[in-house]
Write a structure and sequence with these properties.
The complex is a heterodimer of chains A (145) and B (81). By secondary structure, chain A is of the alpha+beta class. Chain A has one domain: Glutaredoxin (3-Layer(aba) Sandwich), CATH 3.40.30.10. Chain A is 62% helix and 14% strand. In chain A, strands 4-1-5-6 form a four-stranded mixed sheet, sandwiched between helices. In chain A, strands 2-3 form a two-stranded antiparallel ribbon. The relative contact order of chain A is 0.13. Chain B has a single domain, classed as GMP Synthetase, Chain A, domain 3, CATH 3.30.300. The radius of gyration of chain B is 12 Å and the shape is globular. Chain B contains three helices and three strands. Chain B is α+β, with helices and mostly antiparallel strands and 81 residues long. Chain B starts with a helix and ends with a helix. Classes of the chains: A alpha+beta (145), B alpha+beta (81). Chains A and B meet through strand 6 and helix 5 of A and helix 2 and strand 3 of B. Chain A: Keywords: 2Fe-2S, Iron, Iron-sulfur, Metal-binding, Redox-active center.
């Protein structure tokens, strides 16, 4: 009886022990990203840092954020390989940069550019209590006129 | 695997019933950087993110090696304007 138990339980046990080490890393990075995007209103995952972007697409997103004077937290995926893959899995989006507003994945460079051009970005920012600098500039112009 | 403009264009037309597709290889030949314009009525009623995700899903395998991918997604009505 004892040997039967051992035989039936042990193979299972040793199998499950091998899987979690990878699963654990995935869960850890997912939790970390969850935490990051929920703690900050606007988060940008990019290549490089805002003062020195290391990719044209990341740079474009930084410039858009600058134009709207959006306060945001940025994370450099080039300095963290787990994050680089983890963020793609998290949002089911294959490329970097990635922008999150209020914990929600909004898009990459193309979508940010199009939202900027259509005025949608101003509206999305307004929803989370961020007033775009472009809006402020427009109002000042109207008051002067 | 190196993908060509032609290959990506054919796939998008086929999978998305696209009426118009433009594909430009911006990579100087290494096949890792593309810009696409896709016109399809499958985008009707879908927000931008959903449209881009739809295109990404068609090219799921290819996007593992294409690291720069820029897209414009339009419905037939938007395209005709």
């Amino acid at each position: 009886m004892n040997s039967l138990l051992r035989r039936s339980i042990f193979p299972l046990y040793s199998n499950t022990r091998k899987i979690p080490s990878r699963l654990f890393a995935d869960v850890a990075v997912k939790d970390k990203i969850d935490d990051i995007v929920k703690k900050n209103k606007v988060v940008v995952f990019m290549k490089g840092v805002p003062d020195a972007p290391r990719c044209g697409f990341s740079n474009a997103v930084v410039q858009i954020m600058r134009m709207h004077a959006v306060p945001y937290e940025s994370h450099d995926v080039l300095s963290d390989e787990n994050l680089r893959q983890g963020i793609k899995d998290y949002s089911n989006w294959p490329t970097i940069p990635q922008v999150f507003i209020n914990g929600e994945f909004v898009g990459g460079c193309d979508i940010m550019l199009q939202m900027h051009q259509s005025g949608e970005l101003v509206e999305e920012l307004k929803k989370v209590g961020i007033k775009s600098a472009l809006l402020t500039a427009e109002e000042t112009k109207k008051e002067e006129a | 695997m190196v993908y060509t403009e032609e290959y990506i264009k054919d796939k998008l037309i086929k999978e998305l019933d696209a009426v118009h597709v433009e594909v430009v290889d911006d990579s100087d030949g290494c096949g890792a950087k593309f810009s696409v314009v896709v016109v399809s009525d499958k985008f009707q009623g879908k927000p931008l993110l959903a449209r881009h995700k739809l295109v990404n899903s068609v090219l799921q395998e290819e996007l593992k090696t294409i690291h720069a991918f820029s897209q414009k997604t339009l419905t037939v009505e938007q395209w005709n304007k």
